[in-house]
Amino acid sequence: MLYLHHFDDAFPPVPGTVDTRKFCEAVKRTFPDTGVIVPDHGQAVVL
User: Fold this and answer.
1) Are 1 and 39 contacting, i.e. CB atoms less than 8 angstroms apart?
2) Which of 9, 41, 37, 40 lies closest to 23, judged by CA?
3) Would you tell me how many other CB atoms lie within 10 Å of the CB of residue 6?
4) pLDDT for 8-30, tens place per residue?
């Protein structure tokens, strides 16, 4: 299981959310038995 715990650009001047769709698609293609969790900002994730 992959957990994207840091998926924004995190550097000024304009931090914002980065589109993770291509990454998630690549993981699914390359490792079909591996899941990817992309949490919502500020929400707890129970693994």
Assistant:
1) no
2) 37
3) 8
4) 555 655 566 778 899 899 999 99
